[in-house]
Amino acid sequence: MKIFLDTANLRDIEEAASWGVLSGVTTNPSLMAREEGADFEVTIRRITELVDGPISAETVSEDADGMVREGLEYAQWHPNVIVKVPSTTEGLKAVHRLKKEGIRCNVTLCFNANQALLAARAGAFIISPFVGRLDDISEPGMDVIADIVEVFANDPEIETLVLAASIRHPRHIIEAAHAGADIATVPFKVLEQSMKHPLTDKGIASFLADWRQREAQIEPIASTGSD
Ligand code: G3P
Fold this sequence. Notes:
- The chain is α/β, with parallel strands linked by helices.
- Strands 1-2-3-4-5-6-7-8 form an eight-stranded parallel barrel, surrounded by seven helices.
- It has eleven helices and eight strands.
- The protein starts with a strand and ends with a helix.
- SN-glycerol-3-phosphate binds at residues 6, 26, 28, 130, 132-133, 165-166, 185.
């Protein structure tokens, strides 16, 4: 399973990219709004320089014509730009039309396998089911990932990638991998948390303490030897 970063924050993207773990980035209008004063096009172009992989840029129109217009513009910024459209019938129309132009789409705000199946049939490159937001309303979000993975596996024509979105904690990442997701898009904080373990910190501290103690023992012997 590939890891994408779910943010429009350039510092976080640069940091996570330096770890060598990133295969792409997803943004959305809310994530962009957090980056005060940042220009959308400049931000997306910069992300394409930092990460060599699919970079999702979301449309904000509610009708297919508007989504297609925005999508055609975004696609000119870089070949890795993926046009994000919502799981609506207008979104399906936009996917269908943009695909004919050779433009790849990520269908977002997906909450069930029906939406995913129709998005795939319309030609979506990626489908993004929102795990955390389903958990928030007491529906097991990860079951929807497993459901979609199974439905897609039963249809050899479907090549759409399943991207687990709305990831809220490190366990979600592993559960998405177990469920068969192709990608998990992860907030930077969750990615950082997922590399932390108290036993790792404790182990480093004790290795370093032992090393210093060893050096302290060797030093007097070495200085005696030189006499
Ligand atoms: O990229 C969309 C998705 O990951 C949003 O997550 O936490 O706002 O539900 P969240």
